Amino acid sequence: MNAVEIGGIERELSRLWSELAHPQPGSTQTAPVLRTCTLNLVVAGCGGEQADLASLLAEVAVRHPARCIVVLGDDEGERPRAWVNITCHAAGRGQQQVCSEQLILKAPAGALHEVIGSVAGLLVADLPAFLWWRGRSPASDLEKERFNHLARVVDRAVLDSARFSGEQLAGAAELVRAYPRLAFGDLNWARLTSWRAAVAQVFDPPAMQAQLASLSRARIAHPGGEPNATVRLLAGWLQSRLQPPPVVELTRSDAEVVELDLPCGTIRVPRPAPPTDAQALSEELRILGRDAVFKQALYAATGSPE
């Protein structure tokens, strides 16, 4: 990555693109470069782990060529700093290389607001803008202020409630309610897609559809101690999709499985292998509008009125 001043980011990007378009003698570049961008992705948050973030974003960019802007706190630096990189992958043998941009902005806590303020000017105009808010739901006044500033310049915010406690999940529901203009998603919700589909497929046969009205009780078995946000969201989905809502019990077990008590007997639906973080994020980036089913499941999971 090339270190630059924040004010020189666009100039450095232009230089890098020019180098890619006109490779120097001795360059190993063998295929023409396609400069494309389908969306803006801003990565920020509080308490999110940074390990392997660059490789994750590079994997996502294979599916969604984007300008990725990563905003990080920097306890070691004394002033805002920036790094710029362009990552490319070949669409196929002998075909064009599709490239995306990665921008990393770092600042000490006292200057982080200044860096966040520069994000709007770095977004590619006329393209959807996503915010991937990593780590916990904003709780302190400073965290809420940072989220609020970014929420003004993006179209959709993607959370990750995988490690949320019940209280933090309730905070996420409050966040969704506080920003009616903003569309919300959740990587944890995306990881549940295959499990939700497996449960729904139980009722695909006509004979099973007749059993659906008799579903009054279900159990979600999960490992560990207190039910985490994952099983709470799944329970919220079941309760928000069925009328009247079934009683959903959350029980401890070594396996993750949904049990449906039906007149024909108890149907067990084990959890399929969840997607990777890159796959889950790619799924969320395909959704440009509001995910009403996620919102209803979140409200049901936290007991929040719609």
Describe the model:
This protein has twelve helices and 13 strands. The chain has 306 residues and is of the alpha/beta class. The chain folds into two domains: 2-154, no CATH class; 191-302, no CATH class. Strands 1, 2, 3, 4, 5, 6, 7, 8 and 9 form a nine-stranded mixed β-sheet that branches. Helix 2 (53-63) packs across helix 11 (277-285), helix 6 (166-178) packs across helix 12 (292-302) and helix 10 crosses helix 12 (292-302). The N and C termini lie far apart (46 Å).
Largest sheet: 9 strands, mixed
- Please report which band the strand proportion falls in: under 5%, 5-15%, 15-25%, 25-35%, 35-45% or over 45%: 25-35%
Q: Catalogue the unreliable spans.
A: none
List the total number of helices. Answer: 12
Average of per-residue pLDDT values: 90
Number of strands: 13
Question: What number of structural domains do the residues give?
Answer: 2
Query: What series of H and E elements makes up the topology?
Result: EHEEHEEEHHEHEHEHHHEHEEEHH
Oligomer: single chain
- What level of helicity do the residues show? 25-40%
Topology:
Elements lengths: L1 E3 L4 H13 L11 E3 L3 E8 L6 H11 L2 E8 L7 E10 L6 E11 L4 H6 L1 H4 L6 E7 L5 H11 L4 E4 L6 H13 L4 E4 H5 L1 H9 L4 H7 L4 E6 L6 H13 L5 E6 L4 E6 L2 E6 L6 H9 L6 H11 L4
Helix pairs in contact: 2-11, 6-12, 10-12
Short synopsis of the structure:
The chain is of the alpha/beta class and 306 residues long. The chain contains 12 helices and 13 strands. Helix 2 crosses helix 11 (277-285) and helix 6 packs across helix 12 (292-302).
